[in-house]
């Protein structure tokens, strides 16, 4: 395991290049970050320029957050899903082999419909990531203090493993 800095642990509001500089200055060898800023750099300049952002700071990108909003609107999901192959290809070219997302432990929606939609959407994401050799980690969030909505959702290891089994893709873990 490689120690990695994640923006969630820093308050999330640190600008991209400042975050990279802070991770480097603190001696982190890696970071877990969004792929979108690297995609913008690759589009504006080149993939090599995106890679150099990390190399200059002696960093690697350990994983990237799933750049697809699967929790809400179907239209947004489909639009972002269409962009996922390009993002996964960039990640692969940058040497990144892991993508991850998390599940909120409660919902106001009927659980069966919510679960079914998540399985379908996450399976579609996992298929694409698998095509690019990227493993897909799904994190469950457990604190009771976050289970404040109408229905509890996945908040245990067995629940997460059951969801991953239902997704049924080799990249999902």
UniProtKB/TrEMBL annotation:
SUPFAM superfamilies, per this entry? Xylose isomerase-like
GO terms (molecular function) for this protein are: isomerase activity
User: Which keywords describe this protein according to UniProt?
Assistant: Isomerase
Chain ranges of the Xylose isomerase-like TIM barrel domain? 20-170
Q: Which InterPro entries match?
A: Xyl_isomerase-like_sf (IPR036237), Xyl_isomerase-like_TIM-brl (IPR013022)
Q: Which Pfam families match?
A: AP_endonuc_2 (PF01261)
Q: What is this protein called?
A: Sugar phosphate isomerase/epimerase
């Amino acid at each position: 395991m490689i120690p990695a800095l994640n923006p969630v642990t820093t308050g999330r509001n640190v600008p991209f290049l400042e975050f990279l500089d802070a991770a480097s200055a603190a001696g982190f060898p890696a970071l877990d970050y969004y792929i979108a800023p690297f995609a913008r750099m690759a589009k504006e300049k080149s993939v090599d320029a995106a890679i150099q952002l990390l190399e200059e700071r002696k960093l690697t990108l350990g994983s990237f957050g799933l750049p697809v909003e699967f929790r809400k609107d179907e239209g947004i999901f489909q639009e972002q899903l269409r962009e996922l192959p390009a993002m996964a290809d960039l990640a692969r070219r940058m040497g990144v082999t892991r993508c991850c997302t998390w599940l909120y432990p409660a919902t106001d929606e009927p659980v069966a419909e919510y679960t079914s939609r998540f399985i379908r959407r996450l399976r579609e994401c996992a298929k694409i990531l698998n095509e690019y050799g990227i493993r897909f980690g799904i994190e469950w969030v457990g604190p009771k203090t976050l289970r404040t909505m109408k229905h509890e959702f996945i908040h245990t290891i067995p629940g997460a493993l059951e969801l991953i089994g239902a997704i049924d893709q080799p990249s999902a873990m």
